[in-house]
UniProtKB/TrEMBL annotation:
Textual note on the cofactor: Divalent metal ions. Mg(2+) is the most effective.
Sequence similarity: Belongs to the HAD-like hydrolase superfamily.
Residues the record lists as binding Mg(2+): D20, D22, D216
Gene Ontology cellular component list: cytoplasm
Binding-site residues for substrate, renumbered to this chain: K191
MF terms (GO), sorted A to Z: metal ion binding; phosphatase activity
Protein name: Putative HAD hydrolase, TIGR01457 family
Keyword Nucleus tagged: no
Cofactor field: Mg(2+)
Length: 270
């Protein structure tokens, strides 16, 4: 079902598509109905697209392989993580600088590819990402480096993450602890920061005026798309319900039951 929440105006055709991953294309390691068909429709029309995730643990290659096991064929160059966005942001702010990094291969690989030196001695930045093994010693060292003047960057503000056993503390929770210890707030690069969206558009040579964002969360996906100037579509296959939409002071362009409903927009060239 297509429920438009925006006035009908003359808009240019969508020339590039950005889609959130969890809750839009996959859920619990399984492809959602219509997900591969949506991707096939984009490929058939040679439309640039990116699959976005705030997860900074995995490299693009790892995520591509995991998605393939879920039933989706997504090349690694069509994946954009908060680690990719963080590396792109830091490259723009201070090219080929240095950072003390707390995170997994997805983050360290992205920063290495951006020409960054990872060091625990007088880095320009402390960069905090997702990991399943936060080290007390590493966190203590990060706090002391920030106290000495290192700039504090975090890949994303998510405070919790899912697991088979239940809720896990995520980057936002650990960042809050470091903030409490240092009095220094981090700069979060991932959604809902529109910086992640704009950096992704730059990576595929697209522009916000002719791009669309598909997401399942009003507070991250839709907000980031709205603030970046994209046409936004909310799908109800993930976190946000239809009843919750009215709680937010902004609106998506339209609401759909699932990603498969967007295929008609692609085929019509909307």
């Amino acid at each position: 079902m297509d429920t438009s929440t925006a006035p009908l105006t003359e808009l240019p055709p969508v020339g590039a598509w950005l889609s959130d991953m969890d809750g839009v294309l996959v859920r619990e390691h399984r492809a959602l109905p219509g997900a591969q068909e949506f991707l096939d429709a984009l490929k058939e029309r040679d439309l640039p697209f990116l699959v976005l995730t705030n997860n900074s643990i995995f490299t693009n290659r790892d995520l591509s392989a995991r998605l393939e096991r879920s039933g989706l064929e997504i090349p690694e160059d069509r994946i954009w993580t908060s680690a990719n966005a963080t590396a792109a942001f830091l490259s723009q702010q201070s090219p080929r600088s240095s950072a003390f990094v707390i995170g997994e291969a997805g983050l360290t690989t992205a920063l290495h590819n951006a020409g960054y030196i990872m060091t625990d001695q007088d880095p320009e930045y402390v960069v905090l990402g997702e990991t399943r093994n936060y080290s007390f010693n590493a966190l203590t060292h990060a706090i002391r480096l920030i106290e000495k003047g290192a700039k504090f960057i975090a890949t994303n503000p998510d405070v919790t993450g899912p697991s088979d056993e239940g809720t896990l503390p995520a980057t936002g929770s650990v960042a809050a602890m470091i903030k409490a210890a240092t009095g220094r707030s981090p700069y979060f690069v991932g959604k809902p920061n529109p910086v992640m969206i704009r950096a992704g558009l730059n990576a595929i040579g697209a522009h916000s005026t002719t791009a669309a964002m598909v997401g399942d969360r009003m507070d991250t996906d839709v907000r980031a798309g709205v603030e970046a100037g994209l046409r936004t579509y909310l799908v109800l296959s993930g976190s946000t319900s239809r009843e919750q939409v009215s709680l937010f002071p902004f609106r998506p362009f339209a609401i759909h039951d699932g990603i498969g409903d967007l295929i008609a927009h692609i085929e019509a060239g909307d």
